[in-house]
Amino acid sequence: MAVPPESAGPPPPAELLEPTAEIAERPRPAAPQRDGAVDGVIDAGVRLATPLARIGWRTASGISRRLGLDRAVSRAAERTLERALDTDAAERATERVLGSDATKRVWAKVLESEEAQLLVERVAEAPEVRSAITSQGVGLLEDVRRSIRKAARGADGTVERAVRRILRRPVRTGRPAEAGAVTRGLAIAIDAAVLTGILSLISTVLALLISSVFSLEGNAAAATIAFGAVVWAIAAALYLAVFWTFAERTPGMTFLGLRIMAEAGGRVPPSQDIRRLIGFTLALLPAGLGFIGILLEPRRRGWHDRYAQTVVLYADPELDPGVDRSGHVTFSSAPGSR
Predict the structure, then answer these.
(1) CA 295, CA 287: separation in Å to the nearest integer?
(2) Which terminus of the chain has fewer Cβ atoms in its 10 Å neighbourhood, N or C?
(3) Is residue 140 scored above 50 in pLDDT?
(4) In this predicted model, what pLDDT tens digit does every residue of 155-192 receive, in sequence order?
(5) Contacts for 287-291 with beta carbons within 8 Å, 24 or more apart?
(6) How far is C-alpha 309 from the chain's CA centre?
């Protein structure tokens, strides 16, 4: 027997790590060959069965819809689910799950987590949420204002009818386009409150300055009151003149939906606004008797209205006829509503 040469022994470790050229060039085993005839039959069967299955599914679905089987099955499933949820067992299981200590601990951890706080902050800061809150607040104020306007207009007719009956004057039929005494009185009260709020701080500061500079001793209180009254009267005159001239209404009149117009129609020029302010002062001096014409005069005008040849009209498009969406009055309907 021939002895194998030494080179035929086991290779060294280094040679095991690097494949030799013979190993690298060793051919890979060939993939098992498939029978072409069998594959063709299988592919043909799949291609033939697919359209048949689709046709069968569509046919079965159409028959089911025509017979109402799909709706019946859906209703049956819904009734079954409702019955299952309405059972006492389901209710007791739900109560046990929601009332368990584990559920409470989970909710506590969720609410105390930073993620939940961030979520609440993001929701509160969302523009949509702020817009919704603002719109609700504005809508509430608009509803309140509309209710006050409607109530004031109703009170105008009630008070006027009562005064006319007491003085044995003919009662007016229908509601005129000119504003009545109650609505105009509320507008003046709102303007007085606005003006008083603006001037209260200024008057207090000025009074303190005068009392600190001049030593009036016992007459200090009387002088302060007199000075404040003079300042308030001057500010009120400027307040009315500015709003009547540039806006044809004061903030109080805007809140109650009123507008000043010339007696013949159109915008009131500044010269008539000044005359109206003078007439307003004269009507106020005799204990307010100059305003009695608002209750008795056919066009609801006081001394200042007749002196300046102006009228005060209702100007709410939702409550008053002849008013467009911008608040302008169609004056042609006003003179005929007596």
Answers:
(1) 16
(2) N
(3) yes
(4) 999 999 999 999 998 888 888 899 999 999 999 999 99
(5) 291/181
(6) 41
19-42 pLDDT tens trace? 444 444 555 555 455 555 666 666
Confidence of residue 254 (pLDDT cuts 50, 70, 90): very high
233: exposed, middle or buried (C-beta count within 10 Å: 0-12, 13-18, 19+)?
exposed
- Cα distance between residue 229 and residue 324, in whole Å: 40
Q: How far is 198 from 186, CA to CA, in rounded Å?
A: 19
Tokens 């000043």 sit on residue: 260
Phi, psi of 311 (to 5 degrees): -135, 155
- Domain coordinates of the chain in residue numbers? 136-333
280 exposure class (CB count in 10 Å sphere: 0-12, 13-18, 19+): buried
CA dihedral angle for residue 317, residue 307, residue 196, residue 146, rounded to 10 degrees: -10
Sign of the Cα torsion 107, 111, 114, 118 reads positive
How is residue 60 written in tokens? 């079965």
Name the CA dihedral angle for 56, 60, 65, 68, rounded to a multiple of 10 degrees. Answer: 180
